From TrEMBL, chain A:
Summary of the function given for this chain in its UniProt record: Master enzyme that delivers sulfur to a number of partners involved in Fe-S cluster assembly, tRNA modification or cofactor biosynthesis. Catalyzes the removal of elemental sulfur atoms from cysteine to produce alanine. Functions as a sulfur delivery protein for Fe-S cluster synthesis onto IscU, an Fe-S scaffold assembly protein, as well as other S acceptor proteins.
Active-site residues, as the UniProt record annotates them: C326 (cysteine persulfide intermediate)
Cofactor requirement: pyridoxal 5'-phosphate
GO molecular function, one term: pyridoxal phosphate binding
Residues annotated for pyridoxal 5'-phosphate binding in this entry: G72, S73, N152, Q180, S200, A201, H202, T238
Name under which the protein is recorded: Cysteine desulfurase IscS
A GO term from the CC aspect: L-cysteine desulfurase complex
Domain Aminotransferase class V: residue ranges: 5-366
Residues reported to bind [2Fe-2S] cluster: C326
GO biological process: [2Fe-2S] cluster assembly; amino acid metabolic process
UniProtKB/TrEMBL annotation, chain B:
Official protein name in the record: Nitrogen fixation protein NifU
InterPro entries: NIF_FeS_clus_asmbl_NifU-like, NIF_FeS_clus_asmbl_NifU_N
GO molecular-function term, one example from the UniProt record: iron ion binding
Residue stretches making up the NIF system FeS cluster assembly NifU N-terminal domain: 1-122
Gene source species: Lacrimispora celerecrescens
Gene Ontology BP, a term: iron-sulfur cluster assembly
Length: 394, 145
């Protein structure tokens, strides 16, 4: 295979060899079911408890507030649906934002069909929630606010602490989808007044298929998967022991190296961002310039379409993603890019690159040169660019 | 996701460019759904398409269908060009993923729009040619789903 420059770490990450190594014994040696009584299974049970403890510590939470799930989407579904059902007698109004992940947005649409009312908050041009609009949206029957910690496409970090304070003041539950931020930025559930939080292992160099939902003690929540007594009777099903162990190890590594990693990533990201902005005309940065995930950059190249750009980057061994309609499998470009006010034709030309600390400056140079060449080629083929140039000549 | 032929036409698109004082020019599609195609035709006195050029803003399939469609009409008579349908372009590319079939519709429409422009300029009537829609609307695209 040709050289690979993987810049799609918001989609998924490499499972670190240390993580795989930690998991392996729980497939072949200690395969016991944690629910069984014999001593052999105790090893599995202990491993699960250890991982739960590690994850809880990373959030400033208690171990019995962490519920393992199959991933971020399940956690989001659970947080919204179970809370809505459990608190329906108090009210049927939920507040979220227009830029949430589809795991939240489509679950909200489902709840609307079940008779709940949902307010979708706008964001400003940087993708930040407007706190005044949030305050105004609160009603006596509002039971839940669900706002993502950081956006998966444009990397903008939301004012979570302020949102948590508003929710607390009004006695409303606050859920945050932290799939892109857990293990990347410091999170303390008490400091931020977070009542529920979703996260996923494979975004922090852990395995796929394992996530968790943090539920603050004392919150009424219904079981989401009915069956056995696992996860304090709230999520049935034999525990994914190797996955949980891997998630624990990945969390340990992510938390230990967080500051250093963020520094390395943001330096590299800024280098890439600055070079592209200086050398490729008609380009903009989407998302907040400062308050954004350290490894995320999202460009919009005017006059070109994102899927063409991605295929050409792929030919050069570069993996990225785009919010163009063609790549989303729908006819509309990304709802996030439209929400920050981009016109359709510019949203179609977006490119998201999400780095890893192990990427190098040399790789960034190669990426910049590739982008320059490809954007120029696509613009030379673009009727929109032709019209623009003709218009300028007049 | 794409066939080898699609990738070949995407990577090495044929007939990209513009024609000065074209016999006919047509632009179809819209930026909203992310595909815009423009075709330039140079047609001689015997109604033979001497040259054809295109410009496309769109995905891999849109670029490849534009390229293939221009290859298929080049050197043909105006009437023969009318037979280059979206299905013919699709087949020539060994097929497109189902969600991308609407892109090939755009190529057919772009050729028709350029031919309409040519017919109008010369006071001609081309059998089977209808007034093109300047904008391929959402309703048509949605049919593909």
């Amino acid at each position: 295979m040709k050289q690979l420059i993987y810049l799609d770490n918001a989609a998924t990450t490499q499972t670190r060899p240390e993580v795989v190594e930690a998991m392996l014994p729980y497939f072949t040696e200690y395969y016991g079911n944690p629910s069984s009584v014999y001593e052999f299974s105790g090893i599995s049970k202990k491993a699960v408890s250890g991982a739960r403890e590690t994850i809880a510590n990373a959030l400033g939470a208690k171990a019995n507030e962490i519920y393992f799930t199959a991933g971020g989407s399940e956690s989001d579904n659970w947080a919204l649906i179970a809370t809505a059902e459990a608190y329906a007698n108090k009210g049927k109004h939920i507040i979220t934002s227009k830029i949430e992940h589809h795991a939240v947005l489509h679950t909200c649409e489902y709840l609307e069909k079940q008779g709940f009312e949902v307010t979708y908050l706008n964001v400003d041009e940087n993708g930040v929630i407007k706190l005044e609009e949030l305050k105004k949206a609160i009603r006596p029957d509002t039971i839940l606010i669900s706002i993502m910690f950081a956006n998966n496409e444009i990397g903008t970090i939301e004012p979570i602490k302020e949102i948590g304070e508003i929710a607390k003041k009004h006695g409303i539950l606050f859920h945050t989808d932290a799939v892109q931020s857990f293990g990347h930025v410091p999170i303390n559930v008490d400091e931020y007044h977070i009542d529920m939080l979703s996260a996923s292992a494979h975004k922090i160099n852990g395995p796929k298929g394992i996530g968790f939902l943090y539920i603050r003690s004392g919150i009424k929540s219904r079981s989401f998967v009915h069956g056995g007594a696992q996860e304090r009777k709230r999520r049935a099903g034999t525990e994914n022991v190797p996955g949980i162990v891997g998630f624990g190890k990945a969390t340990e590594l992510a938390v230990a190296g967080m500051e250093e990693r963020a520094k390395k990533e943001s330096e590299l990201r800024n280098y890439l961002m600055d070079r592209v902005m200086a050398e490729v005309p008609f380009t903009r940065i989407n998302g907040h310039r400062k308050n954004r995930l350290s490894n995320n950059v999202n460009f919009a190249f005017q006059f070109i379409e994102g899927e063409s750009l991605l295929i050409m980057l792929d030919m050069k061994g570069i993996c990225g993603s785009s919010g163009s309609a063609c790549t989303s499998g729908s006819l509309d470009p990304s709802h996030v890019l439209l929400s920050i006010g981009l016109p359709h034709e510019i949203a179609h030309g977006s490119l998201r690159l999400t780095l890893d600390e192990r990427n190098t400056k040399e790789e960034m140079d190669y990426v910049v040169e590739s982008i320059k060449e490809i954007v120029e080629k696509l613009r030379s083929m673009s009727p929109l660019y032709e019209d623009y140039i003709r218009h300028q000549a007049k | 996701m794409y066939t080898e032929k699609v990738m070949d036409h995407f990577e090495h698109p044929r007939n990209v460019g513009e024609i000065d004082n074209p016999s006919g020019m047509g632009t179809v599609g819209n930026a909203k759904c992310g595909d815009i195609m423009r075709i330039y035709l140079d047609i001689d006195e015997n109604q033979i398409i001497r040259d054809v050029k295109f410009k496309t803003f769109g995905c891999g399939a849109a670029v490849a269908t534009s390229s293939m469609a221009t290859e298929m009409v080049k050197g043909k008579t105006v009437q023969e060009a009318m037979a280059v349908t979206n299905m013919a372009v699709c087949e020539a590319l060994d097929g497109l993923p189902p969600v991308k079939v609407h892109c090939s519709l755009l190529a057919e429409e772009a050729i028709h729009a350029a031919l309409w422009d040519y017919a109008k300029k010369n006071g001609l009537e081309i059998e089977g040619l209808k007034k093109p829609k300047s904008d391929i609307g959402e309703e048509e695209v949605e049919e593909e789903y």
